[in-house]
Structure prediction request, 114 residues.
Amino acid sequence: MSLLDTGTDTITVFPEETYQDSYGNTQRRPSQSGVVVVGCRMQPMASMRLFPSNDATQQQTIYATWRLIARDAPLGVWSRVEWQGKTLSVRSGPERRRYSSTTSHITALLQEER
Prediction:
């Protein structure tokens, strides 16, 4: 049994789709319907605070980053992921690793703005 098959997290992936904007150009966006991915792993990577100016009393933005490891997921650059009430966007990847049938998986860095 592989660690890739025993993940404890469940996510909902909204795969990227193409559409025509009002000018007739082809654009991409997350779809309205989600796909549930069971058995993946979400590893915390980092949190970063950004202040809009040197005045620390103003509104601050916190970016939290996680690494997704799953056997397979319909991820794309424009996909959106929901996990534990958080909405995440793809910041790096997705990288499909096709080593063998037992070790192939997909990884991506996901970021949430709070």
